[in-house]
Amino acid sequence: MINEKLQLTKKDTRLSMAFIYVAFISLLIGGLMGLLQTFVRSGALTLPWGINYYQILTVHGVILGLVLTTYFIIGFQYALMKKTVGITIKERKIAWIGFWIMLVGTIMTAVTILLGKASVLYTFYAPLKAHPAFYIGLALVIIGSWVACFVNFHQLFRWKKDNKGEKSPLLAFMVVINMLLWLIATLGVAATVIIQFIPWSLGYAETINVLVSRTLFWYFGHPLVYFWLLPAYMAWYAIIPKVIGGKIFSDSLARLSFVLFLMFSIPVGFHHQLTEPGIDPTWKFIQVVLTFMVIIPSLLTAFSMFATFEITGRRKGFTGLFGWFKHLPWKDVRFFAPMIGMLAFIPAGTGGIINASHQLNAVVHNTIWVTGHFHLTVATTVILTFFGVSYWLVPVLTGRKLTKKINNLGLIQTVVWAVGMSFMSGSMHIAGLLGAPRRSAYSTYGGTEQASDWIGYQIGQAIGGSILFIGILLMIYIFINLAFFAPKGNEEFPLAEEEKDAEPTPKFLENWKLWIGLTVVLILFAYTIPFIDIIVHSPAGSPPFDWPIGNQ
């Protein structure tokens, strides 16, 4: 029986679509900036009108890595929460306040970058200094996202209060875990922006402690990856099974994997600072070990997904060792796009293990290999899953239908994206192994002999970037069609059910005090002593500007 209270109303859909509109506008702008970068690095283009390469690099990183992802995730999660636990009028009003705070902050940040006043890259490392409006805008984006966090927390709290003793809906549980991760992680970047960068950029502070700012950034920067990834996992665990005609393999396993991500994704920022002086190697080693712990929930997820695929295929009568795999709904873009993203996560995860390993990291550190890794994770695994979600979510939110024509165009778009990313990310990985630097506009950096080795791969990046931009244009066309021109109708909101014979979910998996407490303990263990050491041993007077600029 349909619960009318959990059906999406026009007011609910407007809220989610407001976030998703910003996300797709960001995709177009950020994608164009990425295309220009590849042309500049390959030597095929000189930027006109005095535009600086690092200006478009900053736009590309900030608008795709932060704006697109954050807005899409929040819009998607509001839809999931409404569908599973509902939303009150007051909660919706507060959610809109958060949206407008984020939008004002986004516009402030974007304007300062476009005016050339904030060419400080995605990581905005000191001593690079931006206009104060850049940092104030960042602070507003973070504060606005916190509003979304507390709305989601209150939604689940209200549901638990009204349904005492019952297991919370899986997707609502997952959303709250992801927003807890985001809230805890953004405390670091908020601290460095508000306490360090804003006073420094306004001239109230003459110096800034570089190592403190980088440490606080990477306290946030690594869990940011999982903030991107967990909504994709939500779709994999609880949406894809419904799309393929199956059920969730294990509710317990899904919840456990999310709890493990919460605990082990935050206290690991030092693995981005392995070449950084001023941090004791022992603490670097401890955080590298904690980093590898996230491999466990990733493997749990892989096991769960392929178990779902096989069980579903066998029930449909497909026999043979891989008959179930062959007969998955490859012609349904709602499955095909996320599935390609899942497969891309295999090399992406392998690259992540390399980046987090002390000795292997020394080989690829600060090379364009790392950029290639980011493009496999967020720009392939995550984005293709988000595209796959969009094919059903946008019609659900706009009251339209996913037509066969758009479905087929989506299949083409997914293939175009996969081919383009294979060229670009593959070229980046190989060039990185040859020593090509990241964040550099110059393919001749390092001498003529090295440049001759790199230039072919720079051209490969330009080819890949061009193909990817075609994929972006296709996706924008698809989005506009689904939002405004597709036939009116009722598209399915594909929420999967758990297997009937699955083991009951242990109640301790919803012991929020336990998991939040363990997360805080791990963070305090991993950061308290090294952070005190950083403060105590910081040079007096001017900041240590001679420390290496530009780590991962």
Q: How many discrete domains?
A: 1
- State the CATH architecture: Up-down Bundle
- N- and C-termini, Cα separation: 51 Å
Highest-level CATH class = Mainly Alpha
Q: Keyphrases for this structure?
A:
mainly alpha; Cytochrome C Oxidase, Chain A; 0% strand; globular
Describe this structure in words.
This protein is an all-alpha fold. It has a single domain (7-498, 511-549), classed as Cytochrome C Oxidase, Chain A. It is 71% helix and 0% strand. It has helices spanning 10-41, 53-84, 89-114, 132-162, 170-202, 210-238, 240-243, 251-264, 281-292, 295-315, 323-326, 333-356, 358-364, 368-398, 404-433, 448-485, 512-536. Helix 1 (10-41) runs antiparallel to helix 16, helix 5 runs antiparallel to helix 6 and helix 8 packs antiparallel against helix 10 (295-315). Residues 541-552 have low confidence and may be disordered.
In short:
With 552 residues, the chain is mainly α.
Question: How are the SSEs placed, and which strands pair?
Answer:
Elements: H1 10-41, H2 53-84, H3 89-114, H4 132-162, H5 170-202, H6 210-238, H7 240-243, H8 251-264, H9 281-292, H10 295-315, H11 323-326, H12 333-356, H13 358-364, H14 368-398, H15 404-433, H16 448-485, H17 512-536
Helix pairs in contact: 1-2, 1-3, 1-14, 1-16, 2-3, 2-4, 2-14, 3-4, 4-5, 5-6, 5-8, 6-14, 8-10, 8-17, 12-14, 12-15, 14-15, 14-16, 15-16
